[in-house]
Amino acid sequence: MMDKYLNLSRLPNEVKLLLDLINENNEQAIFAAIDWDKCIDLMKHHRIYPLLYSRLKVNKAISLPSDVIQFLSKEYRRNTMEMLHLSAEIDEVSNVFAKQAIPLIVLKGPVLAHELYGDISLRTSSDIDVLIPLDRLETAEALLKRFGYEKDDYIQTILNDWKWRHHHVTYIHPQKQIKLELHWRLHPGPAKEPSFTQLWDRRRKSSLHKSPVYLLGYEDLFLFLVSHGARHGWSRLRWIIDIQQMLKLQKMDWMSLNKHLKKYGYHHIGGQSIMLARDLVNTTLPKEWKTLCTERSRALAQDALFYLERKVNLHASPVPEEVSRYHKWHLFSLMAPKQKLVFILSFLYPYPEDGETLPLPKKLHVLYFPLRPFLWLWRKTVRYAIRGSTR
Fold it and tell me: In sequence order, what are the beta bridge partners of 129?
């Protein structure tokens, strides 16, 4: 068992202040060294402004500059209206899917906010994420189109690799200004995860809605939040606070969860998540959970601080080259040994780029399997030659 704490010394003062505010630490000596514009920017980036505002309203001992309070108040009200808007849409979409007998699980949004915080206004969400079975995807897409949604991205694919390499497609409702992500997997492949049938059997009904709206079971929800946060480098403090809130609920069955963590290769990532929650937001760990705090989990948690030290936004394109290289390395380091092997072997499966390099009739696409190494080498050679000619 690993009890050693993380080294937080390289975190910027503004991040340390946010952690103090999250933890309701009344020590204000750090205020003199704060760039408040940067602090506001970080509040936006980490999506924690509604939670901070709610705590500062109660804790009058902490006094922030008036413009910071005004920002928090304004964003809190805006977010509350947005979450109510999304909540109504979830209700409507769930009813439409239910009438067509399409099982649907809501992954995040107001449903998650209500589940973890007991109040939809305390967590932000910019879209709706729902999970359905892969074999109902075509029907679901037609439904969303009739419902006013327009497909926002189109996946390039070859030999049906989209089914496992990708995990969702995005739709936009232009009138309602709502983005909806339709998932057929929890995460992009080739990661191992429970089947939809297993997730559906363990689903729970949301108490936020009167009509049937379902979310993941407690253990499945923890696995989803842990793997999602890890895949994004825990680059937003909101995701770490989500883990804290899950632990506070005390609704998970430890034996079942521990079994799931091992089965899907998430044991070390589970440890990473709770160590970040312990050291950053003062989360108390139940005794049995401390078995997850291994040396490897601690190393992964320490590595994740890279993203907090630099305010990394993996959704903003282009991602800086230094960050991109580090993130690729970090994602690989997160994998269990079997996952690393499957990941390496997945490179042998053809990519859409192979079809662009050497177009073949669809009935001959199977030839891309033996041709892939040569096509990959050809692209590398061409890119190297182009770089050399521009020097």
Answer: 181
Q: DSSP per residue over 309-323, as a string?
A: HHT--TTSSSPPHHH
Question: How confident is the model over 3-21, as pLDDT tens digits?
Answer: 689 999 999 999 999 999 9
Give the number of residues written for the chain: 391
What are phi and psi for residue 298, nearest 5 degrees? Answer: -65, -40
- Look at residues 264, 259, 229, 261 and name the one whose alpha carbon lies nearest to residue 245: 229
How confident is the model over 145-150, as a mean pLDDT? Answer: 95
Distances (CA, A) of 347 to 189, 304, 305, 332: 12, 26, 29, 14
Separation CA 288–CA 290 (nearest Å): 5
Does residue 325 lie in a domain region? Answer: no
Instruction: Note down the domain range covering 379.
Output: 352-389
Q: How many domains does the chain have?
A: 1
Banded pLDDT at 2 (limits 50, 70, 90): low
Using a cut of 0.85, tell me whether the model's pTM lies above it: yes
Q: Token pair of 121, please?
A: 């206004």
- CA distances for 207 relative to 104, 112, 215, 262, angstroms: 16, 11, 10, 30
* Residue 361 lies inside a defined structural domain of this protein: yes
Instruction: Evaluate if residue 278 carries a pLDDT over 70.
Output: yes
Per the domain annotation, does 369 fall within a domain? yes
Return d(Cα 29, Cα 43) in angstroms, integer.
20
Phi, psi of 226 (to 5 degrees): -65, -50
**Would you say residue 7 lies in a domain?**
no
Segment 138-152 mean pLDDT: 95
